[in-house]
Write a structure and sequence with these properties.
heterodimer; A: 404 residues; mainly alpha; ABC transporter involved in vitamin B12 uptake, BtuC; 70% helix; B: 396 residues; alpha/beta; Rossmann fold
Chain lengths: 404, 396
């Protein structure tokens, strides 16, 4: 009797769909599991009460009115970048050049502020800043798109490399405009005159938040209800289909990347003109890359992106607060963030796929009651109640065949 | 996702409540806030962090430390958050924090903002914004004396000839703080070893371990027989230990990592300044607009000498130190250096920072360059390229 174990321990099977209720349950369980693992890690590595660490995380994001505003503002920035990347992603154009598109947009705004600061009226200056930020961002998006459309170059590499070009250009201008000479920093631009500083709506955080909501709604409408949005998804499905339907995919690719880059450029304007009032190579802070995760985590749904962006910012502010209020190194906060993200992203896998274990097959058999497998002159019958595979005797084998 | 969010928000609020009740038992003691560019992995920030804790423990006040705060709006946010949290004084440690500290100071007139290494307090005219520095050029001069004695020892042992006495120096940026540092170090070394020359290279970053290590290796390959640095990582000391080249480090002793090559390190001890500023605020007294700590006030220190130091170094350095305190030796005595072959009889330094870097104050006083001098400002403004120092690159 040969025992037959050629079937792997489990299969990964795509789920048809999971009811919303179950999806939420899985996510909640994932968060609960993440919290438990974080607590264990906290106790083992620091000996601290994990509750105090969790309290610190919430304090970091919501500890005071100012902290709540900053959390919302930072969420808004990350959200706009994620939204900017999304039309390209829908087209299956992997734009990982958000960082560079934001930076070069910021550089455009900074250039206007520094060179034209006190020479032209403020409204005109802000208009020029807007044009140069959005225009440069669009250009930075259009270049890899043109190469893709014309020569089918790899857009992932091209957009990635455009980041480094942008960083080096900004590094050059940082030294060109540095104050004082040799210090490697520009400092606040027009600190006394405030020329080119974007207007405040209510408080200094509100403008960014309002713009992010507008961009979110706009992106939703654009992708869902416009002809452009439809063309983007067709090109994403298949370029052949697009051609068959009379859509010129090259035009769609370039047009979509111009929009993508322009929105990133807008973020550069907000960062330089509205928030930091300076330009550094690190002003985008890696958010061009983080936004990729936000967009994916939200499955390219604009409104869900607000939630995903919020989650990431909440965790990063929390991580910073851990180092301040618990006296732990920043790395510890990053570990906690990593664990939580691991569970949250990991649970999406279980929502979309299921693991079918070898024994899992038996569960299905209970429904069909008896099932036989015939292979290489050997018939095996699975004992459904015990879940143990047993080989049958020649006699029962014959009976089985008779039954069939 | 929306439901998920709402659940998350509810959790947030619940834990927020717990947090609030937990935080209700706040003590009434005086609070002090500190903002650091990096964390304790940077020797520069570690030096500040240690001083912050020491000063607060000395005075028995509460402190909040914010690490890894970039030189952007984050600094303003952090400073305002510290003010919100009830801090009476807020300190920041990095040059690029200055503009954002000024913004925070304008918005919180009842809180004192103290910025180390900054240059603008004396021109901003804010009563609650202050700059501080220390006469670290004196410390570097003394470290230079130790380096010069090491070179003399190497010449006496026949390891190098007099002409080969070349020092390598790794600087971060090309502005006054760094120029003042390497010039004083060089003058200290030359006071002992007259034939010394120095190559200087720049990394364009305050903390870039790889770049600093590569720079040190480049200098050693270029014939430098002793290395010093003005950048904050362990890159240069490590490269020296690997190559067996004596090293004068900065911000604190590196003897543990470099037992064979460490000579000495100079550093600023910020405890006297922090203690003074906190105490003055608690007592309602004013903090000086520009504060310069000196060797005399304990603000400038040398660490213990490492095994690589030449015999007799401690005694000689002590002697020079006493001369500096007594004022009989001046680091930037114009008789000891030339610029383009000529003595520096007059120099208009850019004390009040402006975009054109125009000189605005005559700083040659009584035959010496008055660095961080009374009536000027605390941060260095010595930006002269003196003869004997060779700048390999000035890209930054």
């Amino acid at each position: 009797m040969k025992s037959k174990n050629s079937e792997p321990l489990f299969h990964i099977v795509k789920r048809k769909s999971m009811p919303m209720k179950n999806q939420m349950l899985v996510r909640l369980l994932a968060i609960a599991a993440a919290v438990i693992v974080c607590a264990i890690v906290t106790v083992i590595t620091t000996g601290m009460n994990p509750l105090s660490v969790f309290v610190a995380v919430f304090e970091g994001a919501f500890g005071s009115a100012r902290k709540i505003w900053i959390t919302l503002q930072d969420t808004a920035i990350l959200l706009i970048i994620a939204l900017a990347l999304t039309p390209a992603f829908n087209m299956k154009f992997w734009n990982i050049g958000g960082e560079g598109q934001v930076l070069i947009g910021g550089l455009g705004a900074a250039a206007c502020m520094i060179e034209l600061g006190d020479k032209i009226p403020d409204p005109l200056l802000v208009l020029l800043m807007f044009i140069s930020s959005v225009g440069l961002g669009a250009l930075w998006g259009a270049i890899p798109a043109l190469f893709k459309a014309k020569w089918n170059t790899n857009e992932t590499l091209a957009t990635l490399m455009m980041n480094y070009i942008a960083i080096q250009i900004v590094a050059f201008f940082t030294i060109y405009w540095e104050v004082p000479k040799g210090s490697g920093k520009i400092g606040i631009i027009n600190q006394t005159t405030n020329a080119g500083w974007l207007m405040q709506v209510g408080n200094k955080y509100m403008l960014t938040i309002i713009i992010s909501v507008l961009v979110m709604v706009g992106t939703y409408i654009y992708l869902k209800y416009t002809k452009h949005g439809y063309e983007v998804s067709v090109v994403g499905e298949s370029e052949m289909t697009a051609r068959y339907a009379g859509i010129r995919s090259g035009v769609v690719i370039v047009r979509t990347m111009i929009i993508s880059g322009a929105l990133c450029g807008l973020v550069g304007l907000l960062l330089v003109g509205g928030i930091h009032h300076t330009i550094t190579t690190t002003i985008a802070g890696g958010q061009g890359f983080t936004a990729v995760m936000v967009s994916w985590l939200a499955q390219f749904q604009p409104f869900a992106m607000a939630g995903a962006a919020f989650l990431i910012i909440f965790l990063s502010h929390g991580a910073a607060e851990i180092s301040t209020s618990c006296g732990l190194n920043q790395s510890f906060g990053d570990i906690i963030t990593g664990i939580i993200l691991f569970f949250i992203i990991g649970c999406e896998f279980f929502i979309r796929y299921q693991l079918v274990f070898r024994s899992g097959a038996h569960v299905q058999m209970e429904i069909t009651n008896v099932q036989t497998e015939v292979s290489d002159e050997q018939t095996e019958v699975t004992d459904t109640k015990l879940g143990v595979t047993t080989a049958q005797t020649e006699d029962s084998n014959g009976k089985e065949e008779a039954n069939q | 996702m929306k439901k998920f969010l709402s659940v998350l928000l509810i959790c947030t609020m619940l834990v927020g409540l717990v947090g609030c009740t937990g935080g209700a038992k706040k003590s009434d003691s005086f609070k002090v806030g500190f903002i650091f560019l990096h964390d304790e992995n940077s020797t520069y920030d570690l030096n500040f962090i240690n001083a912050a804790k020491e000063a607060c423990d000395l005075l028995g006040v509460e402190y909040i430390l914010k690490t890894n705060i970039p030189e952007g709006q984050e600094c303003y946010d952090a400073a305002c958050e510290l003010a919100d949290a009830g801090c009476g004084v807020v300190f920041a440690d990095s040059f690029g924090h200055e503009d954002y500290m000024i913004e925070a100071a304008k918005e919180n007139p009842d809180v004192q903002f103290c910025h180390s290494t900054g240059t603008k307090a004396h021109t901003e005219g804010l009563s609650n914004y202050h700059n501080a520095f220390a006469s670290i050029y004196e410390g570097r001069y003394l470290a230079g004396v130790a380096a010069g004695m090491k070179l003399n020892e190497m010449i006496a042992n026949g390891e190098i000839t007099e002409d080969q006495a070349k020092i390598g120096y790794i600087g971060a940026y090309t502005y006054a703080e760094v120029i003042s540092g390497y010039s004083s170090f060089f003058l200290g070394a030359r006071s002992e070893c007259p034939s010394v020359t120095m190559d200087v290279t720049f990394t364009g970053s305050w903390y870039d371990e790889t770049a600093e290590k590569e720079a040190a290796t480049k200098l050693i390959d270029g014939g430098c027989v002793l290395i010093s640095q003005h950048a904050d990582s362990m890159g240069a000391p490590t490269a020296c230990e690997n190559a067996g080249v004596p090293d004068v480090s900065y911000n604190g002793s590196t003897v543990d990592a470099c037992p064979n090559t460490f000579i000495v390190s100079s550093k600023i001890n910020w405890t006297p300044y922090f203690t003074m500023a906190i105490k003055n605020t608690m007592e309602g007294k004013e903090i000086p607009t520009d504060y310069v700590g000196t060797i005399g006030t304990g603000s400038v220190e040398l660490t213990d000498f490492g095994p690589a130091a030449a015999p007799g170094t401690a005694e000689r350095v002590e002697e020079v130190k006493n001369n500096l305190i007594a004022g009989t030796t001046k680091v930037f005595d114009v008789a000891t250096f030339t610029v383009d072959g000529a003595p520096l009889d007059s120099y208009m330094a850019d004390v009040d920072t402006d975009p054109e870097y125009q000189g605005d104050h005559e700083v040659i006083v009584d035959g010496y360059f008055s660095e961080s001098g009374a009536g000027f400002r605390s941060a260095p403004y010595f930006d002269v390229n003196i003869d004997g120092i060779n700048l390999l690159d000035t890209a930054f």
